[in-house]
Amino acid sequence: MSDDRGTPTTEPRIDYATDADAEEMVALLQAAFPSWPPVEVTVPAVDHLRWKMEGPPNARPRPSTVVREGDAIVAIQLRWLALAHVGDEVLTFDRGVDLSVHPNHRGKRLASLIFRDDRRLSDSFAPFLRWDLPPSSEAVLHLEDDVNIMRHAYTWIRTFSPRTALGLHTRAGARHALRVAAETVRRAVATRFGGRRPNPVDSPARIGALEQFDDRTDALWERARTQFDVARARDAASMNWRFTDPRAGRSSTLAAFAEDGRALGYVVSKQAAEEGAILDLVIDPAELPAGRALLAAACEELRAAGCRQVRCLLPVRHPLEAALTDTGFHRVGAPRPIQIGVGHMPSEVRALEVLRNPAVRIHITLGDFDFE
Predict the structure, then answer these.
(1) Residue 247 backbone dihedrals phi, psi, to 5 degrees
(2) SS3 of the chain: helix, strand, coil, percent, to 5
(3) Which spans in 109-156 are helix H?
(4) Count of Cβ atoms closer than 10 Å to residue 162 Cβ
(5) Which residues contact 138 (CB under 8 A, 6 or more apart)?
(6) Strand locations in 119-205 (E)
(7) Cα 322 from Cα 86, distance rounded (Å)
(8) Could you report how far apart the first and last alpha carbons of the chain are, in Å?
(9) Which residues, 6 or more positions from 202, have their beta carbon under 8 angstroms from its beta carbon?
(10) HSE on the CB side for 353, CA within 13 Å?
């Protein structure tokens, strides 16, 4: 790029990444975040980046944005598109990840360039749906032309020792921590001397590892999503991209099956040091015992791997709250805000009525936010 006199200029400019940029993009990410990628991957970091740039196989292509100064990439943002159910409507779900500015180029408002271009690109696939987890209600970002709707979710924790439970007081208060610790002791005693947990999770379902999502999990999702008004689509193709692709990072999926082969539910989990996380869970509403058994099996798998606690996120009034309670989870802290943004949507669209309903039923999990 040059000025009117043909003199080269380093004025920052928006561009769209190609595969040839991947190595330079990884270098920028690792300069901004030295531990990137923070997931446990069995492939080179550049392959993990290419997986993100590809996005779900059944979604519309969405270019990854870069800012160049001269020939150098100085800022990036990756985005991926998927589908989301909102009532009877199917909208484009737009998710941004890895917004990064090189440490040597901060303070130049490069992120603002990306945001402005993002708005322009969004016009091509409107209307769209976004959601985020701001740290507080005061930190909500209101985007121009978007309808911003606030809902809330609880963080749920299951601990495996009274000492770990007591440590929760730093986040949830000493009284809550003592209650959780007492319940942890009660469950340990009941299991050790009574031969079973106080809340049975017995189920005739067959539980085992799920290597690939397939037609059985598609049929499960069609049954399960009737419980919800708002949810990202969980078809087999996008779930395999998200969780079973070897470039995505290590996770584990357990599924429950009936004698006739029907999938009754699945739980996706991951381990990071001594903390486990439930990334996704889908349970047939008519098969809650199988759901409890799945959650118990996933927690046992994480405990055996060395986790001291397991974390889960579900919106307020979620139908699986009872299953979490029955398998030893406790709500920790106040509800967290979920910001749902709807862009370029005519006011008469039915989806807006669904989202604005205070009793809207939402299915959002950690896997809908956290690429890591």
Answers:
(1) -80, -10
(2) 35, 30, 35
(3) 110-122
(4) 17
(5) none
(6) 128-132, 146-159
(7) 24
(8) 36
(9) 289, 293
(10) 6
Q: What are phi and psi of 30, to 5 degrees?
A: -75, -20
User: Which parts of 123-197 are beta strand (E)?
Assistant: 128-132, 146-159
**What is the rounded average pLDDT of the residues 184-209?**
59
Sequence-distant (6+) residues with CB within 8 A of 232 are 82, 83, 84, 85, 93, 363, 364, 368
The tokens for 256 are 């429950």
pLDDT of residue 223: 97
Q: What is the pLDDT of residues 85-116, one digit of tens each?
A: 999 888 888 877 888 999 999 999 999 888 88
CA-to-CA distance for 228 and 310, rounded, in angstroms?
A: 24
pLDDT band at 370 (very low <50, low <70, confident <90, very high): low
- CA 208, distance to chain mean position in Å, is 23
CATH number assigned to the domain covering 153-368: 3.40.630.30
CA distance 268 to 288: 17
What 3-state DSSP class applies to 79? strand
Q: Look at residue 344 and give its three-state secondary structure.
A: coil
The CATH number of the domain covering residues in 13-125: 3.40.630.30
Structure-token pair, residue 334: 């106040």
36-67 exposure pattern, b = at least 16 Cβ within 10 A, e = fewer: bbebebeeebbebbbbbbbbbeebeebebbbb
Q: For the chain, where do the domains classified as CATH 3.40.630.30 start and end? A: 13-125, 153-368
pLDDT at 255: 98
Pick from 318, 131, 111: nearest CA to 224:
318
CA–CA separation, 241 vs 246, rounded Å?
A: 9
Residue 364: name the closest of 290, 105, 355 by CA: 355
Tokens of 319: 């139908």
Q: What is the DSSP string of 296-314?
A: HHHHHHHHHTT-SEEEEEE
